[in-house]
Amino acid sequence: MMHFTLNNGVKMPGLGYGTFRSEEGSDLAKNVKHAIKVGYRSIDTAFIYQNETSVGQGIKEAIEEGLVTREELFITTKVWNDGLSFDETIQAYEDSLKRLGLDYIDLYLIHWPGLDENYVTVWKALEQLYKEERVRAIGVCNFEVPHLKHLLAHTDIVPVINQIELSPKLTQEEVRAFCKEHNIVVEAWSPLMNGELLTNETIIELAEKYERTPAQIILRWDLQSDVVTIPKSMTPKRIEENFDLFNFTISEDDMKKIDALNEDFHYGPKPTVFDFGR
């Protein structure tokens, strides 16, 4: 397993199991446990996914069955900061912790910046949680360069992570360059573009060349681009395939072919216009 060292010294697995659009229920709990059995040590969820309870149940069962210890896991969840106050943000953390059934969370993220600058207040609450050692690391999601600049100018702690939509069709060069300059690790959500990239002609050609699945090509591209990646699947075979990334390397020329697929295409909402559905 490849690990990334965050700017506070904490090590994070480069590959995680994502749960976006995975419904609460026994199937998700079963798949979280299966992912852990396969070898995943990083699990990503969020309040807005409405599945923290099932994610926590899968973690609990994996620990009880001796598949892993809590200390070996890296659990991420996110606050849906739609106008939250400082105190409401602290309470949101408490609520997520309870739903997950955990004593602490490894990485707590602001899910979206929104169209105002309320994220500064929310971030200061995350800073307090971190200073009180109630969370191992704090970061953000979907922050573009102006958001990051404003945050850094008004707060004390530099985020360890910026989790953004990133795929071969959306390589996010400007954000990645800024994050690299400030020692912020980039993490990709929707790395497979909800499966739509799996039929891309270039990706298929490379999959055939390397005798891999199209998903494995894209996820390996992430890792070789120094990007943490969190593919989501509810199919046990796909969960296993997505983890099998560490015994091949994509050549530099082929990496450039994937880079060249960029169209600055957002499959999901754009951070500059998304305002929590208000």
UniProtKB/TrEMBL annotation:
It comes from the Bacteria. Pfam families: Aldo_ket_red (PF00248). PROSITE patterns: ALDOKETO_REDUCTASE_1, ALDOKETO_REDUCTASE_2, ALDOKETO_REDUCTASE_3. Residues 15-263 form the NADP-dependent oxidoreductase domain. InterPro entries: AKR, Aldo/ket_reductase_CS, NAD(P)_OxRdtase_dom_sf, NADP_OxRdtase_dom. Keywords: NADP, Oxidoreductase. Belongs to the aldo/keto reductase family. This is Aldo/keto reductase. It comes from Kurthia gibsonii.
